[in-house]
Each structure stands twice: as structure tokens, then as C-alpha cells.
UniProtKB/TrEMBL annotation:
The keyword Phosphoprotein applies. PANTHER family: CHEMOTAXIS PROTEIN CHEV (PTHR47233), CHEMOTAXIS SIGNAL TRANSDUCTION SYSTEM RESPONSE REGULATOR CHEV (PTHR47233:SF2). It comes from Pseudomonas antarctica. Signal peptide: none annotated. The modification 4-aspartylphosphate is found at D226. The keyword Protease does not apply. Keywords: Phosphoprotein. This is Chemotaxis protein CheV. PROSITE patterns: CHEW, RESPONSE_REGULATORY. GO terms for biological process: chemotaxis; phosphorelay signal transduction system. The gene is cheV_1. InterPro entries: Chemotax_regulator_CheV (IPR024181), CheW-like_dom_sf (IPR036061), CheW-lke_dom (IPR002545), CheY-like_superfamily (IPR011006), Sig_transdc_resp-reg_receiver (IPR001789). It comes from the Bacteria.
Length: 300
């Protein structure tokens, strides 16, 4: 398999604007609701990019000033605009934006990696796409959240049996994720377990790594892949592996910031062995033990 054609899945994007009026987008599956900006309670010593806390149906919701988080000019009316309430990586937060524009539908192959020189927001962008002749940037919400409230560093589990630790040590793992933050979290967990791994920032790069290592002592037997990636997503990558004789038996764990319940059936149909919601180091460890046991039984 020297070349790979991206297999297209559909994707819905919510378009929104900040003060500049430039269109940005977020995966609609990450959005739970859109509401007018409610009264906020400012907390002392909170992060400067946190506007305050809103009360939503009796629950507290942290509200991020997205303009400040992205280094843009603040909204003209700091009390206006609306909140995009997101549900990402097991937590909810509100994104304060100027306005919500509309929902558009596209293919994952329509999302391209962000070009160099695309502006100061580039580090917070996972991809770009064309909508009605204009360029729309797709927000890396995980990186925005991590910059404000980094996930606590969890220690490596100490309750692994000797057998689990031994079989895990024989796993040769490739981690695929276009979000640098998410990639680092996964790699950190593996290092805490005393494991080394290969990494890739796209499905195409992942396939190149698999081809390069095929037939060597480092030949990959476990792939841990993000689902949302530009050009070729995790579902398409999984289908491609299942259709390629050399890679059909690889264990594929799809690792997503979305609720895994809504992705499990689609992951199964694509041929994935398992799906997990980011980010829990203990749960990732359990999934990797199962993966290592499975490939050991297959003799991979």
C-alpha cells in the first residue's frame, strides 16, 4: 500500500464569529446547546481567560472568554453575544462568542491541515475548510481548555499484575492525534507505564510509520487513534487498515474527546476493536492492557 485515498465521513460544523467577524467552526457533536450570555459571577484569582461562572439549570458552568483565549480583540459588548456550551473530554464549558452563524455539513476530506502563516490563532486550529468561497478555521477546543485548566497529571497505575505489566511491555504502540495536547497526554501515560511509542499527527503520517516499521523489530501491533482529524479521520483510517492485508490484524483503539457512547457503533462498523473517551490515564491503561493481551493471543 504505497498510496492512500482518504475515505470520507460526513461532518457537521457550527459556524460562529468573534469581534473580527471572521468565521470559525466547532464540531457540532461537541456542542450541547447555545444560549444568550447569562449573568456571570466573577471568581477571585480565576484564570484571566475565564469570564466567570454561570448557573445553568442548577449546575455551575465555567465561561471562557474565547476572544482573549485566542489573542483577539475583546467583544464590543462584553455582556452581549452568546454562549456555545460544549461537552468535551468529560467536562462542560461555555464559550463566549460574538454570534452563532449557521450549521454547515461537509466531508472529513474537506477539512485540511491549517496552512502556515494562517495567523496568530494557528496553534488553536486543527484544520481549515472552504464555506461559500471563504476560509473557515476549525477550533481546537481541547487546546483552549488545556491552556486554561490543564488536566491533572495522573500517576501510573500501581495495581497492574506482573502478567499485565509483562504483556503490556510487548505492545508496540502507535499514537495518532492531530492535537498536540492530546498526543502529549497519551504519550505521558505510556511513559509513566515505562513504555515507548511511535507518534503521528495525521492518518497519512500514521500509515507512513506503519509501512516504515513493517517487518522490523518495532513493527506496530496496537494503534491508538483520535477520531477527529483533518483529511482522513479515525474511522477512515480504521477502515483502510482493515482493508490492507498487512494491517488487518492490528488492534485499533479509537480515542476521542466526544462521548464514546455516541461513537461506539460507528467505531464498530469501521472495524475498531475499542473506543474510549479522552482523557483518563487509568482507563487508557486498562484499554492498553486489553489490547496487549489481544495481540499476544494473536501472536502479533
Amino acid at each position: 500500500m504505497s498510496t492512500t485515498k482518504a475515505r470520507a465521513d460526513s461532518l457537521s460544523l457550527l459556524l460562529f464569529t468573534l469581534r473580527s467577524g471572521k468565521l470559525m467552526a466547532i464540531n457540532l457533536l461537541k456542542v450541547s446547546e447555545i444560549i444568550p450570555c447569562p449573568p456571570l459571577t466573577k471568581l477571585p484569582e480565576s484564570h484571566p481567560h475565564v469570564k466567570g461562572i454561570a448557573t445553568l439549570r442548577g449546575a455551575s458552568l465555567s465561561v471562557i472568554d474565547l476572544s482573549r483565549a485566542l489573542g483577539e480583540m475583546p467583544l464590543q459588548d462584553p455582556n452581549g453575544g452568546c454562549l456555545i456550551v460544549t461537552d468535551v473530554s468529560r467536562s462542560k464549558q461555555g464559550l463566549h462568542v460574538q454570534a452563532v452563524s449557521k450549521i454547515v455539513h461537509c466531508l472529513t476530506t474537506d477539512i485540511r491541515p491549517p496552512p502556515y502563516g494562517s495567523g496568530g490563532n494557528r496553534s488553536f486550529i486543527t484544520g481549515v475548510t472552504q464555506v461559500e468561497g471563504g476560509l473557515v478555521q476549525v477550533l481546537d477546543i481541547e487546546k483552549v481548555i488545556h491552556g486554561i485548566a490543564p488536566a491533572p497529571v495522573e500517576a501510573a497505575p500501581t495495581d497492574l499484575t506482573m502478567e499485565e505489566a509483562e504483556v503490556l511491555g510487548n505492545a508496540r504502540i502507535l499514537v495518532v492525534d492531530d492535537s498536540q495536547v492530546a498526543l502529549q497526554q497519551s504519550v505521558h501515560t505510556l511513559r509513566n507505564l515505562g513504555l515507548t511509542c511511535h507518534t503521528a499527527r495525521s492518518a497519512k503520517e500514521a500509515i507512513d510509520v506503519l509501512l516504515e516499521l513493517q517487518g522490523t523489530a518495532q513493527q506496530i501491533n496496537v494503534v491508538v487513534s483520535d477520531i477527529e482529524m483533518s483529511e482522513m479521520d479515525g474511522y477512515a483510517l480504521t477502515r483502510t487498515l482493515r482493508e490492507t492485508p498487512d494491517f488487518q490484524e492490528l488492534y485499533v483503539l479509537l480515542h476521542t474527546s466526544l462521548d464514546s457512547a455516541m461513537n461506539s457503533e460507528k467505531a464498530r462498523l469501521a472495524g475498531a476493536d475499542s473506543v474510549l473517551t479522552k482523557f483518563s490515564s487509568p482507563e487508557l491503561t486498562k484499554c492498553l492492557v486489553i489490547a496487549a493481551q489481544t495481540v499476544a493471543q494473536k501472536g502479533l
